[in-house]
Each structure stands twice: as structure tokens, then as C-alpha cells.
What we know:
Elements (H helix, E strand, L loop, with lengths): L2 H12 L4 E4 L4 E4 L5 H11 L8 E4 L15 H8 L6 E6 L6 H4 L4 E6 L3 H10 L3 E5 L11 H8 L5 E2 L12 E4 L5 E3 L1
Parallel strand pairs: 1-7, 3-5, 4-8
Antiparallel strand pairs: 1-2, 2-6, 3-6, 4-5, 8-9
Helix pairs in contact: 1-5
Amino acid sequence: MSPWAINRLSHAIELGAVIAYPGDTIWGFGCHPLLEESVERILQIKQRSASKGLILLSSKLDYCLPYISRDLSTNDIALLKQPQAQPTTWLIPASQKCPSWLRGGFSTIAIRITSHPFITALCTQLESPIVSTSANMSGKKTIRNSIQARRLFAKQLDHIISGYQPGTGRPSEIKSLESGDIIRP
């Protein structure tokens, strides 16, 4: 996308737009994390329980710091920024300011740092992470391209991003930052 198109898209997201986009793993639904109505729209589209929580996807750890409850050690920061064998989502204790609609029924927030070109451009323009969850209805297969997104969700979404390829084609690994335990391989 051109810088002009990224600027327009980020402005729409700041005003509440919900998007489908190819991420660093699979196709996702996204919105601004501080807009509860937008998050609720995603949950309605997916037919997903709010108790499950959502991921914050960002190009910079700094954009996620307001959602995290504790100061990160030098080792934590290095681990979060270090490229992993596969994209990794980290569960980190959430700050009291972290909205419940992002955490679901948990005391942690899920964060993944990525260098995917679309996510990098969008987060840089927003100066914020975006919400990330798989682009599907709960229990169904994730969409694989913008054509499927348009066919299945065009009437429910504000924007469907074309021109980028998703990354690995499979969901990220989920790990606890505190314990190192793998929650989802």
C-alpha cells in the first residue's frame, strides 16, 4: 500500500473501522485496541466469546508498553524482540489500564512483535498496536486471501486489505513470558 493509503486506513481505524488483513502468520481481523465497539464488532463477526481475549500485534514493543503491568527486564525485552523459529505470541501480565475487552477473562495480555511490512507500516502510522485475531468464524477455517474475505465477510468489514501475503500460514505459538511455558505450540 502507498503511504497515502496507509494514512487513510489508519485514520479509518482510529475512527472505528474493522479490517481483514494478511499478517505475519495467517489472515486476521483487526481494529484499534482502545475502541471497545470495534472489538465487539470483531467478536460478533467471529461469534467468539469475549472471555477468550485477543492479541495485540505490533511492529514495536514500545507501542505495547501501556498494556503491560510491569517493567520488563533487559532479558524480557531481548526475548520479545528476538526473532523466533516461528512467530510467537507472548502472554504478559496486563496493566490495570489494559482494557478488559482485550484481556478477556485473563490477567495477561497477548502480544506479538512482527516485522511484516503491512503491520509495520500501519502500526507506525497509528503509533499503536492493532488487535489481531484469526479471520474466521469460531471453529471454522481461517480465510486464506482477500477473495475469501470479500465473499464471507464483505458486509461486516470496513476494509479488506489486498496485495500482501500472509506469513507462515499457521497460527503463532503462544508462550508465557514469566514461565516460558508453551500454551499453544
